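Q: Could you predict the 3D structure of Phosphatidylglycerophosphate synthase?
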Amino acid sequence: MGNINDRRPIAARGSAWAQRLSAALAASAITPNQISVASIFFAAVGALMLLVAPTSFGLIVCAICVQLRLVCNLLDGMVAMDGGKQSATGALYNEFPDRIADSLLIVALGYAAGVPWLGWFGALLAALTAYVRLAGGSLGLVQDFRGPMAKQHRMAVLTAACVLAVIEYHTLGSGYVLPAASALIALGALLTCVTRTLAIARQLQARG
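A: Sure. Here are the predicted structure tokens for Phosphatidylglycerophosphate synthase:
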């Protein structure tokens, strides 16, 4: 799963439930790569709900799927690093499923919001945040996971948007939450690309 110094800082990693679940998975035949791929499955289900059933039920299912996707993202690294199940292809599986899951959900959000281009734009910018982070790592720097719209922030916005959109529909009958969330993710990801790039430039200049 890569260098331990390049792991995304996640507070839930130290929680009791995560420790117990990762230990159980480490003792099973399930591999970290399989857990990484499972995150795509949950993202695909959530995206499907946004595309074909953006009803109250579909939005709640999507919110749950987003959180399950994040649980997979948490556990794959824990099972690999802490459970001693690292593999030669772990670094690939740590990155590519994330990009696929991000794209599926963010593009689907754009369609559900009625602004497809904004979903595609947001997905592109989300991928670029990871590109900038990995570029820093390729230059010998510690990978920078800062926001303001890193993966966990994007998924938090999407989860909140799904729940708030349900409340909005049943109380106001309007549909502003999903477009606002799509725009927030895109603009926040753009700002994240800028902040990470500037941080890399500062570190390179300091290194001489």
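Q: Anything worth pointing out?
A: The two ends are 30 Å apart (CA to CA).
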